[in-house]
Amino acid sequence: MKQRTLEKPVQLIGIGLHRGKPVKLRIEPLAPNSGLLFYRADLGVTIPVKPEKVVETQLATVIGEGGATISTVEHLLSAISALGLDNLRIVVEGDEVPIMDGSSYPFVMLLLEGGILEQPAPKKFWKVVKEVEVREGEKWARLTPSDSIELDFTIQFNHPLIGRQRKIFQFSTEGYIREIARARTFGFLQEVEYLRSRGLALGGSLENAVVLDEEGILNDSLRYPDEFVRHKILDAIGDLALLGHNFIGSYTSFAGGHKLNNRLILKGIQEGALKLVQLETPVSQFTLTPALSFL
Predict the structure, then answer these.
(1) How far apart are CA 144 and CA 118, in angstroms?
(2) Do residues 150 and 251 touch, judged by C-beta distance below 8 A?
(3) Which pLDDT belongs to residue 279?
(4) Is the pTM of the predicted complex or chain greater than 0.90?
């Protein structure tokens, strides 16, 4: 399988979730073996996509270098990973990636607009070669060896609309666009009010998040009956994309989040549970058909 980049640069302007200010985002193709690079255009700082560059995981995945940070990278990285893109420069004029509609779907559409270009170099993957697990109280996340790519996520909330939800997702690019990409981030009304009192979530609205009160949602409707757990899978794919390459293996989690996901991949590398390999043959999960251009 070959490495991938874009045929041409693409860009958009959107609102940052926490600052509530417009942010310009531009994504540019790079040469083979360049990797994924974020660039703070306002500061002139490059931040490579690596798990050790994660500096905060409380409200979103935040990466940093030399004091410069970029927040909420997980939705964009989820879309990049799902399309199997390897070499990109992501230029951000600000300290957070635009939230768009709270899902990764706008980023998928933006990347497809740029066109997918195969490059003359074999694609690299992180292959799970032995089990690795991290825990925090009742929460846990685990990687186990597999020849396919699978994500199995369970969440549990004391809320009548959520309760306990589980989804097993056999990854494919087309399946991701159909089943995962449109799932929006979600939060509880009392949490939003608290964050705003601290000067955060200023860009949050019913246009870019599912907001729950004590009994239901303030939005008109859900995009999927189990949109909440689907968004957790979307986030996990984005967090695992901090590896810098797609992974092959099985990911399972109960009530995990950004912090556990980052600990998991760091531990996986440190303990040799993840091995970087090159695959010359095509990986069917990343098949791109002409129909993708019309989604």
Answers:
(1) 29
(2) yes
(3) 86
(4) yes
User: Which tokens sit at 258?
Assistant: 């950004």
Does residue 105 register a pLDDT over 80?
A: yes
Q: Is the per-residue pLDDT at 239 higher than 90?
A: yes
Which range marks the domain in which residue 162 is found?
Answer: 2-294
Query: Which of these, 214, 210, 221, lies nearest to 158 by C-alpha position?
Result: 214
- Per DSSP, 96 falls in state B
Q: How far apart are CA 179 and CA 187, in angstroms?
A: 21
The pLDDT tens digits for 26-57 are: 999 999 999 999 999 999 999 999 999 999 99
Mean pLDDT of 263-281: 95
Q: Which residues on adjacent β-strands are paired with residue 250?
A: 144, 150
Q: How many CB atoms lie within 10 A of CB 9?
A: 13
Q: Return the active site residues.
A: 258
Query: In the chain, which ranges are continuous DSSP H helix?
Result: 74-82, 105-114, 173-179, 189-197, 227-240, 258-270
Structure tokens of 1? Answer: 């399988």
pLDDT at position 292 is 58
Contact predicate 192/217, CB 8 Å: no
**Burial classification of residue 106, based on how many CB atoms lie within 10 Å of its CB (0-12 exposed, 13-18 middle, 19 or more buried):** buried
Neighbours of 174 (CB within 10 A): 16
CATH code at position 35: 3.30.1700.10
Considering its fold, how many domains does the chain have in total? 1
**Tens-digit pLDDT profile for residues 204-233:** 889 999 999 998 999 999 999 999 999 999
Bridge pairing between strands 186-188 and 210-212: parallel
Q: Is beta strand 149-157 parallel, antiparallel or unpaired with respect to 163-170? A: antiparallel
